[in-house]
Amino acid sequence: MRQLALILLVFTVFSVAAQRNEPIVNVDLDDMPVTLAINEISDLTGYHFAYNPDILKNRTVSLHAQNLPMSVALDRAFGNHFEYKRRGSYVILLPKSEEEQVISKEVISTVKGEIREEGTGKKLENVSIYEVHTLKPVLTDASGNYSLDLMLPDDVAFIAISKANYKDTVIQVKKGENWSIALKRKTSEVASKTNEWLSKLNNKKVKTHAENVNLTEVKWIQLALTPGLSTNGFLTGQFTNKASFNLIGGYHYALEGVELGGVLNMERSYVKGAQLSGGFNINADYMKGVQMAGISNVVLGDVDGLQMSGFSNHAVYAGGAQMSGYANTSRNGHGLQASGFANWNTETYEGLQISGGFNYTKTLKGLQVGVVNIADSVSSGFMFGIVNWTGNGLHNFEMSYNDITPYNLSFKSGVKHFYTILSAGINHYDEQLWSYGMGLGSMHGIGQRFFWDMESTFNMIQPLNSSEIGGTNSEIRLQMHLGFIAHQHFQLIGGPVLHFYHLKPNDPADLAFADRFGSNPFSEKNTGYSIRKAWLGYELAVRF
Length: 544
What we know:
This protein is mainly β. The protein has 4 domains: 5-99, 3-Layer(bab) Sandwich (Phage tail protein beta-alpha-beta fold); 107-183, Immunoglobulin-like, CATH 2.60.40.1120; 216-390, no CATH class; 394-543, Porin (Beta Barrel). The protein is 7% helix and 60% strand. The protein has a 16-stranded mixed β-sheet that branches. An 8-stranded antiparallel barrel has the order 30-31-32-33-34-35-36-38. A hairpin with a 2-residue loop joins strand 14 (217-226) and strand 15 (229-230). Mean pLDDT is 85; it is low at 1-20 and 98-105.
């Protein structure tokens, strides 16, 4: 008479295999009866074994394992005569097909029963129940009842019962049996490993099974319409796929290969390979490889590779490249962030942030290029933009007097060795003109109170007393200053300015405008429709 045989042992896992979180086995067994060998391995690993005693046939086991992962030890101990399935904290031993002596066909049967809480007798709803070989799952209803259709080879099968924060149970069932099971609540509750974002995007059955069942399976390919309506079934959150093709959306434990999705690809854990989606890629752990999405890529762990999207990318650590049409966000990063509007990094970024609008990082080790660049501090590198603001950098206003416009206001921002300049000036005397421009500069100290700087600006000069001059009307200034630090926030500077001016107006009558400044050029060329001239000027300023 066949009977239920489960070996349940309390254990301590001594170590964990690095890649698969498996217990390490150290054991020497010589021709030990298989039941005793199972006990020995259970004591070492903490895994419970479930099996049909009829398949053991008085066999013995020899195993000499030194620091072997559990899967390798199981292969050596049982691989010649048994197949095994790991389901949570259980190992289910099954006979190899060639060793089965039963000739009868598989029998379809329905197993029914109820699930309740041990001690209280409370009926438990939404408990996951599945056959360990086919992984076909059902959930208990509000009264704790379940009904599961099984394929029973030789009238015997194993079903697993799992619920979040309860101890897993595996039972052996036979045709026509009803089972009422009491689940024992764990002494301490564990937070669900299913991310809230992913939960909201999945149907209730897929979400509940993902929270309940603690196992992972590797499957080569998945075809899906939506999560749950796929070849993975409702336990899709427990599968690692090598290839996945999702017409609308797909959901798995992990990806090690390639995934194509019409709208949405989701992984509870990591991605190693390539994800391509018309809408979104969302991963709850790290990503190594390539992500491409029409709208957004979201990785709640580290990225080592490329994220490319039409709208946005997010990663906790962005290592590699993030490229988006609108925004990239990260906590730390290394490599490239390129976006149409904004890059936002909340800790340290090492590399290049480039955007059409705004860049931010707490600590910059590299280069920011954008209209507005902000960093709490610049450890190394510099910023290039219209406005650059950093806590340990340079951001000064400057009032100056020069040989073209006596009243000028400039804003200089960045770091001392590389800063940008915005300036505007006016001459409302007889010359009646005004100018505006932008440029670059670099400042260097001389002792504690003196410094010198080199600056280059590109300026537009226009008349005040007439309409704007069309065509080319531009000036380049190269200037060198010597400065004195009178106070922490007050500096006096002055120095020579080398001017290069080019005027080619649409109306030749406007050529006379060039006579209003640069009256003593050391170089001048007048062709009748354009003027080029260069002269030496000066600038005096106070900076604060």
